[in-house]
Design a protein that fits this description.
By secondary structure, the chain is α/β, with parallel strands linked by helices. An eight-stranded mixed β-sheet has the order 1-2-4-3-5-6-7-8, with helices on both faces. Helix 2 links the parallel strand 3 and strand 4.
């Protein structure tokens, strides 16, 4: 594996001059028979913050408004799971099996502790990673997601499922109806988000049909594993911040309430006029709230 130096983050607004956008090529980490594509930048010192991506997203669909904000005082790591975009391999058939891959990748980077910000399906994987390796994850931020066996997970209404199949002249525009509410204010935030992600100088490859099909099947199986007591959540004993929009059409917002009720140590934030990508709609608020609170801070944070 080739190590790369972190990139210092300049002050200023996000956009074409952001660290994420300027970091135009990504390295690979060879581990467990997989060639993991990733980006790593920011200020070393604290445990790195690892982002876990959503369904049909690649490592450049992460919002640079967020990754750059977090990278102001720590390292940030964005990566693709096996079989996703420019990473090699095949997507496993279950969420639980997918959890082994980030552990392999993180161990290959020589990291012993991390914080995690996940989104949607990425959060399902992140929960399983934390259950498997509670020594590894210090803090968990779960956005637009739910528990194993949650309400409507992997069972999209037909009109929502159709949104994921639409073709656009600029395919990244697909995220506007999926991640943002159908109001003028939310759609304006969606357009701003899309402009931020397409500003990356060397965008990652699109996801494959195999990865879409495998992830869809894994989501359906995960959502079908019902347990009204959500007993597995008791194993997540670390501080957890749960975030969503008030009307998530992909993983219904009720799941965020379930997480907050059943997790041993959690807080819940719901953003108004927001859908599945609430943190992209309110990047400054989210970065500030997920970044600063003492009770959700890593042990060595001020």
């Amino acid at each position: 594996m080739r190590r790369i130096p972190p990139v210092a983050v300049p002050e200023g607004r996000w956009g074409h001059d952001s660290v994420h956008a300027r970091y135009s090529s990504h390295p690979y980490a060879e581990a467990g028979g997989t060639r993991f594509a990733y980006r790593r930048f920011g200020s070393p010192g604290r445990p790195p913050l690892v982002f876990f991506q959503h369904f049909m997203g690649n490592l450049d669909d992460h919002d640079p408004a967020l990754s750059d904000a977090f990278a102001s005082d720590r390292e940030v790591i964005l990566f693709n799971h096996p079989g996703v975009a420019s990473s090699s391999g095949i997507v496993p058939g279950t969420i639980e099996a997918m959890a082994g891959d980030p552990i392999t990748f993180i161990d290959a980077l020589g990291l012993t502790t991390i914080d995690v910000v996940g989104h949607s399906m990425g959060d399902l994987v992140a929960q399983e990673v934390t259950l498997a390796r509670p020594d590894l994850v210090l803090r968990l931020v779960l956005v637009g997601t739910g528990p194993r066996g949650g309400e409507g997970i992997g069972a999209l209404p037909a009109w929502v499922a159709e949104l994921f199949t639409r073709k656009y002249a600029r395919q990244e525009d697909m995220w506007m109806p999926i991640l943002f509410a159908p109001t003028q204010t939310s759609q304006a935030a969606g357009r701003a988000y899309v402009e931020r992600i397409v500003a990356c100088a060397d965008r990652d490859a699109p996801v494959s049909d195999q990865s879409i099909a495998a992830h869809g099947a894994a989501l359906a199986a995960y959502g079908a594993a019902k347990d009204p007591a959500y007993a597995h959540l008791k194993g997540l004993r670390l501080p957890v911040l749960v975030v969503n929009g008030t009307d998530d059409i992909v993983i219904p917002t009720i799941n965020s309430y379930i997480l907050q009720q059943f997790l041993p140590d959690s807080e819940l934030i719901l953003y108004p006029d927001a859908n599945h990508g609430a943190h992209f709609q309110y990047p400054e608020l989210f970065a500030r709230r997920a970044h600063l609170p003492r009770r959700l801070a890593a042990p060595d944070s001020p």
